[in-house]
Specification:
This protein has about 90 residues and is of the alpha+beta class. Helices cover about 35% and strands about 10% of the residues. The protein has 2 helices and 2 strands.
């Protein structure tokens, strides 16, 4: 009886630990430093993260299946880019 209870506790602990560990593996990165070089990532909140080892001259995004309500600030505005959002 004791060994069965211990086995169930170990199984439950393993399951909870696996779920906890998986949540870190599939979580969105918090900044571009966590990305591979020359990678772009859009978080679940819609923030654009990037890591580039070359200068970026410009960029444009086409968003399908969603409505972009605004675009502002960030590294683009800080470096003199015009930031805007518009629908077609």
């Amino acid at each position: 009886m004791y060994s069965t209870l211990l086995t169930k506790q170990n199984t439950l602990f393993s399951l909870i630990f696996s779920i906890f560990l998986t949540s870190f593996i599939i979580a969105d990165p918090t900044d571009g430093c966590e990305l591979d070089t020359n990678t772009l990532f859009i978080t679940s909140e819609g923030n654009v993260l990037y890591k580039s080892d070359v200068d970026i001259a410009g960029f444009q995004f086409t968003v399908d299946g969603a409505t972009v309500e605004s675009a502002a600030g960030g590294d683009a505005a800080a470096n003199g880019f015009t930031v805007s959002a518009s629908g077609t």
